Amino acid sequence: MDELGFNLLEGFRLLDIIDILLVAVIIYYIYSLIKGTIAVNILLGVFLFYGIYLVVKQLEMRLLTEIFGGFISVGSIALIVVFQQEIRRFLLHIGKNISLRRKKFFWSFLASRRTTQQDRSEEVKPIIEACRSMSRSRTGALLVFSKYFDEEYYQTSGEYVDAPVSKRLLESIFFKNSPLHDGAVVIVDFRVMTASSVLPLSDSEDLPPQFGLRHRAAIGVTEVSEAVAVIVSEETGEISFAKDGNINMNLTPEELEKILREEL
Known about the structure:
Blueprint: H1 2-10, H2 14-34, H3 38-58, H4 62-73, H5 75-82, H6 84-99, H7 105-136, E1 141-145, H8 151-154, E2 159-164, H9 167-174, E3 184-188, E4 191-197, H10 213-224, E5 228-232, E6 239-243, E7 246-251, H11 253-263
Parallel strand pairs: 1-3
Antiparallel strand pairs: 1-5, 2-4, 3-4, 5-6, 6-7
Helix pairs in contact: 3-4, 7-9, 7-11
């Protein structure tokens, strides 16, 4: 046993260790990008499909093996088609990290470790105050928080803003006489990217009948993307939070603040 272990270690090079570490970093990086998104469920489905294929092949079930094998043979092309948005975002994210970051990664990483909680608390505060104010005045609002700004998805259906989040800005946008109050505000990295964006509505038949367009749009956009959404009801002033097609209703501003700190 010791001799076998020695033989294995004998052919192990420093480059092999670096190779393993780089693969681990890439896997972790990809997972961090798709974590909490629908892509994770799709990937689990792919692994399950491949597992079934291995089982039927081992059991020599020829018909099923041929059927599953046909899908596996074109698996790479199918994965590109299924994950085209995720691949696009992955490459876009890499490009932004290389060319558009204002600070070097090393220093921003060290700074974020020390000040993440404090910074997030300060950045979330104007959002919470705006939701509190709009809830009291029963001003309808829909805020979408996305990891990435997909121009083709959001900008074509809304007005491009690109401004820092502030209480007054959000209240001005959703003021009932504002030309931008209909639709959603899309927020990326605590910047208001677009206003009056049109979102896909959920087709679920299990939604309560009292849900209006804002709630259905919030559920719809979280069903098809990694985004999360906050809704302020115009009828009741109730604050709700949507994620992965599920909605948490009747939240207090304090509860919403806790959720946003964790999600953002």
